[in-house]
Amino acid sequence: MVLYRRNFLPGGTFFFTVTLADRRSSALVTHIDLLRDAFRKAKHQKPFAIDAIVILPDHLHAIFTLPADDSDFPGRWKAVKAAFTRGVVATGASIPRDHRGEYALWQRRYWEHTIRDDRDFERCADYIHINPVKHGLVAAPNAWPYSSLHRYIRAGILDCDWGGDGKTDIEGFGEPND
C-alpha cells in the first residue's frame, strides 16, 4: 500500500476536489444555501481565502489560500463537510450511514494539489471554471451559476465569454477517473 503524504505548507495555496459518496446525487446544488452557510461557518472558525470554486451536483473544486502561519486545510474541510451534513440532515433528507454509524454523505478522502506558481494557479482556476462544460451541464462556463467565474468576470479578470469558444484545454489534470 502506498503511503500518501499531504503537503502541509503554512500559507499555502491548494487546489481541491471534494466529492459526495453517491456520485449520482445532486445534494450540493439542491442544498446550495446550506453549502454556502457551511463555508461561512468554517471560514469564521479558521479563516482562509477561497480563490476559485465551482459547485457541481456531486462534487466541487476549489482553490484555498491559508493564513501565513497555518497549514490546517484538513480541519477546514472537516468543518465544511460536517456543517453541510448537519444542515442536510436537519432538512429531513435521508442520508445513509456507514458501518461506524456515521453519515455517509461525503467520500472520506479528497484530492489536493499544492499550487506551485502563478501559471499553476491559472491552470487550476481555468479547470475549475470550465468544469461545468466538461461535465456537460452547460454549453458555456458563464451559464453555470455556482462558479467563481462570475466573480472573475465582475472583477475584469476574465471576459464574460471566457471558455465559450471551446478552445480552453481541460485535459491532463483535475480529479482522477472523472
Structure description:
With 178 residues, the protein is of the alpha+beta class. It has a domain at 13-117: 2-Layer Sandwich (Alpha-Beta Plaits), CATH 3.30.70.1290. 33% of the residues lie in helices and 14% in strands. The protein has helices at 27-30, 32-45, 73-90, 118-134, 149-154, and strands at 13-19, 49-55, 59-65, 111-114. The protein has a 4-stranded antiparallel sheet, with helices on one face. Strand 2 (49-55) and strand 3 form a beta hairpin. Residues 9-131 form the Transposase IS200-like domain. InterPro entries: RAYT_transposase (IPR052715), Transposase_17 (IPR002686), Transposase_17_sf (IPR036515). GO terms for molecular function: sequence-specific DNA binding; transposase activity.
Keywords:
single chain; 178 residues; alpha+beta; Alpha-Beta Plaits; 4-stranded antiparallel beta sheet; 5 helices; 14% strand
What does the overall shape look like? globular
Number of strands: 4
CATH topology of the domain at 13-117: Alpha-Beta Plaits
Determine the mean pLDDT.
Answer: 92
Major β-sheet profile: 4 strands, antiparallel
Structural class by helix and strand composition: alpha+beta
Q: Write the CATH homologous superfamily of the domain at 13-117.
A: Transposase IS200-like
Unreliable spans are: 173-178
State the end-to-end distance. Answer: 23 Å
What portion of the residues fall into strands of 2 or more residues? 5-15%
Tell me which CATH architecture of the domain at 13-117 applies here.
2-Layer Sandwich
List SSEs in N-to-C order.
EHHEEHEHH
Strand order of the largest sheet: 2-3-1-4
Helical run tally: 5
CATH class of the domain at 13-117: Alpha Beta
Helix percent band: 25-40%
Give me the Rg, rounded.
16 Å
